[in-house]
Amino acid sequence: MTSAPDKTTEKAAPKLPAGIQSSPPVPEIPCTPRTPLVDTDAICTAYGTACHAEFVKVPHGRDFCLKDYEPMKLSSFRVCFSTRGTILEEPVLWIEQLILFLIFAAAALPVYIYFKEEAVGSEDSVRRFVREQEGKMRAFAMIMTGLCVFLLSFYTSIIVGRWWTMRSGGIGAIKAATVDLELLLYQSVTQDQRILEAVRKYGRTSMLLIFMWRRKQLDEPTMRQLLCNKHELLTDEEATALLAWKHCLHETIWAWQAAIVNNLHKQGKIKSDQLYGILLQKCLDGRSAAQLIHTHLAVRVPMQYVHVLGLLVKMHNFVLSAIMGVLFGAAWSNGLYIICLQLWGRLCILPFLFNAILLINCELADPFDGSETDFPGEVYQMNLDLDCKKMIEATDRVPKWLQEGQP
Asked: Does the pTM of the predicted model rise above 0.70?
């Protein structure tokens, strides 16, 4: 017997009139987990109690050096409570601000005292003078403010560009040249650990010598202490040879790297002229990177430009303090306390920012001299050592099909 048709079977789709096509079926969208409305991790990062920056202890210079920081904390109101490693720790900034407060008080006090002593019919009273000149004084202050903003922006872009060039084209290039040189030698020339360690240590020494140069630590006792005893980068014989010429040591030490390559070529261990040229080019790249840093540190932004910019900023701050002081004294005498707060706030904000930008550029101009926010030289040279060792380890642990030489 045939079973009865199932009533639950879907009905066939009705036929459409000729010339009308049916629309394709809509694909089902798989369900995904719901996205939380609030990103708690971002909130904890921005407003957490952890320090806004990571500082590491270094064996020379100041006790600690900035290694990394959390941008999220500096982009929230948490920045108001972040002081370590910032320009707020610079005493020169607060001394400059104190001088401006004294100028402000010296201009405000006489106006406040004599503002109410206007004689009847007098054309030379303080009240009339302030009333007639207020608009002109504010316009003059705005002109100087705009000029300072333009010149400071241009100066800051130059300094930050030089800072990044020293970091990427200098420190980064020294690291790249050393790692590449040791890798090529290990894979294509020799696996003699004495030669490989010499290449690694000479590269680290070149990097460390830059920091020692800027921190005035190139005297013989200090050099032997840091290079031979502290970091164990050179032997006493190598340190004596290095001290023989004492000129641009961070750059000229790359002659030792080139000598290693030339000795290997004379011994016949470098089989290809192309490889020989590449190895020599790596030595030249490391020397060029050290020279790039030396040039940026020894040749500063033209002094005339920095002098005019500094003079303009100080003139602006002086004039602004005097004008705000005069207007503050007049407003206080008239009981306009809201205007007094505005004038006081403008005095606190604009000169403070301009002085802070000048001081920050001074710090960025030489990131090797040992201040807390400079490049962490100790971290860099240790990472260079670790990168070289791990590159060799990665070569020894290649996949099995590479060890068997399969295509």
From this structure: yes
Pairing of strands 64-69, 53-57: antiparallel
Element at 54 (helix H, strand E): strand 53-57
pLDDT tens digits, 324-367: 898 898 888 888 889 899 999 988 999 999 999 999 999 999 99
Q: Could you tell me if residue 33 is inside a domain? A: no
3-class SS at 66? strand
Q: Tens of pLDDT along 243-266?
A: 888 889 999 999 999 999 999 999
Q: Residue 194 belongs to what domain range?
A: 169-300+376-395
Sorted by sequence, the CB contacts under 8 Å of residue 47 that are 6+ apart come out as 76, 77, 78
**Cα angle for residues 83, 88, 94 (degrees, 5° grid):** 150
Residue 335 lies in a domain: no
Residue type at position 373: T
How confident is the model at residue 119, as a pLDDT? 40
3-state helix, strand, coil in the chain (%, to 5): 65, 5, 30
Cα separation, 172 vs 167, in Å, equals 6
Number of domains in the chain: 1
Give how far the C-alpha of residue 9 lies from the chain's centroid of Cα atoms, to the nearest Å: 70
Q: Is residue 336 part of a domain?
A: no
**DSSP characters over 176-187:** HHHHHHHHHHHH
User: What DSSP designation does 33 have?
Assistant: P
